[in-house]
Design a protein that fits this description.
Strand order of the largest sheet: 1-4
Number of domains: 2
Radius of gyration: 22 Å
Number of strands: 4
Helix content: 55-70%
Oligomer: single chain
Structural class: alpha+beta
Strand content: 15-25%
Length: 170
């Protein structure tokens, strides 16, 4: 809370002058980080018992999903429009990707694994909102998933299977 109250003053310490045009952008990023840190606490508070109980797949998957599947793509889309050194059109185009057919040999037979193509995708250049949303997505998605997993109680079953000699107190 204290950081949010003094965000403009703190950011001004790192700027060339108090009226630099970057200050409002950086202050908004500080606000986004202040909001995101609340969800970091929720995520950690729910992931801790899950990890301790042996239910480590869900916290890992939630962090992976939040960071690599949502936050980084949002930051990518947002950064291109916000960075003056990069000139981009109104939409960003992710080029088509061709993944060749690969496989493995099992005994004397070859089993194909992959062989597909991803079409070109056009994304809107959403600018700074992409960066603000990336801050929030990196913490809110794991927080929601970990909290829901904790509330479901499935981690207790995993803990009992992991440590069958431990008696449940609740």
């Amino acid at each position: 809370m204290l950081i949010a109250v003094f965000a403009a003053d703190i950011v001004s310490l790192f700027a060339e002058s108090p009226d630099s045009p970057e200050i409002p952008i950086a202050v908004n990023l500080v606000y986004a980080a202040c909001a995101a840190v609340i969800f970091r606490g929720v995520s950690g508070g729910a992931a801790g018992p899950l990890d301790a109980a042996g239910d480590t797949k869900i916290p890992f998957a939630s962090q992976f999903l939040g960071m690599f599947c949502v936050s980084i793509p949002l930051a990518y889309v947002g950064a291109h429009d916000a960075t003056p050194a990069i000139t981009v059109p109104e939409t960003l185009a992710i080029p088509a990707v061709e993944v060749p057919l690969v496989g493995a040999t099992v005994g004397s037979a070859e089993v194909p694994f992959v062989g597909f193509s991803i079409p070109e995708v056009a994304l809107p250049a959403i600018g700074l909102w992409g960066l603000y949303l990336a801050f929030m997505a990196e913490t809110t998605i794991p927080a929601a998933i970990n909290y829901l997993r904790f509330r479901s109680g499935k981690w207790k079953e995993i803990s009992e299977a992991y440590r069958p000699e431990a008696a449940a107190d609740d």
